[in-house]
Amino acid sequence: MDEETYQLTSTSSSSMRVNDRVIQETGMTRKILRATVVENPKNPLAGFKVALVHQRKKTSDQWEDAAAINLSALKAGEGVRLDLNSEATLKLFTELQSLQAISSEYGVQFGQKIIEVQKIDSAQADKVRKLISDQYPSEMLQLLDEKHPELISKLAAIKIQQERKGTLKEFQASLKQEFPESYWQKFFETNPWIFGYGLRYQFLKPAIEGQPHYGAKNIQGTGGQEGDFLQTTEAAVRFTVLVEIKKPQTPLLKDEYRNGSWRVSDEIVGGVSQLQNNCRTWDVSGSRQEENLEHLKNTYTVEPKAILVVGNSNELDSHAKRTSFELFRRNLHNPDLLTFDELYERAKFIVENNEIPD
Fold this sequence. Notes:
alpha+beta; 10 helices; 14 strands
C-alpha cells in the first residue's frame, strides 16, 4: 500500500486549504488539483471544492500558476480545453476519492492538520468491499476475534500508529506557525498520548474534559482560577497534576543580567507563579470540595505536581543561555518546565519505538 500525506490549513472558520496535489507533470509544466475543504450545512456530503490549475516552472525552479483566461472575453466558436492523459485521469479520480473521505472524516478544523492516506489498488479494494458485503461487519469482526484475536489487535495497533504518525507530522509543522494558546490546548487535549508517558516515569491521563477551574464551586464551574489541564498520575493510587500550555514562540530568556547570566522571560516567571498559585489553591480549596471529591474519585492531592509547556529550545543558541536556563529549570521545585520541541521529541520517541507486532 502506498501512503500519501495531506496537509490542511484553516483559511476561515468554515474552510481549510489542502496542499496542491500534482495530477500530471512534464519537465516545465504540470497540472495540479487545488482543493478546499468547506462546511456545507445544506449538503454535508458536498464537503470540498476544487480547481484544476496549469502551472509553469520558473527559472528559479519554482512553480507558478499560468495566467488566467477571461472566459467572458472568448468569441463565438472559441473555447478552452484542458486535456488529461489516462494516468492523470486516474490520479484525479483517486484524489477526489481521498478528498471526499477526508472531508467526511475530519471536516473543517482550526489550525493545521496532517493526514496520512493509505492508497490500495482496485483489486484490494474489491476484496475488502466483497468481504464487508458478504457478511455483517460486526459478525465478521466477531469471527476474526474468535479465530484470530491477534489479527484484531494488530489491526487496531496499525490504526493507532498511523494516526500518531499523522499527529507527529502535524505537531512538527505547527511548531513553525503562529497559532494561539487555544490551538495548542485543543491539540494536546485531542492527543493525550503525547503526555501519556509521564514525566519521571509516571503515566498521565486527563482527569476532566476542558479547562478546569481550580478555585470555583467545582472544577467544572465558572469563576475562580482557570488552568489548561488537570491530569492524574495513573497507578493504584492516583495524584493530581496541573498542566499549563503557552506557545512555542513564547521567549524563554529576557536579557543578559550580568556576564554569562541571563534572566528568564517575564512570561515564564508569570507562568511559574500562576501554576504555583493554582497548585496551592487546588491543594487547600478545590480538591477538598465535596463536588470535586466525587468527580475525581480515588484521586488524591498532596502538593500537586505541575508542568509548564513553553517556548522552544532553539532560542538557547549560546553556552551562557543554555546554562542559565537549565540551572533555573533544575533548581525549580515546581513546576517542571518543558519546551515544545522537547515535547515533540517525546512524541517522536513514542511513535518510533512503538513497533507493530508481526
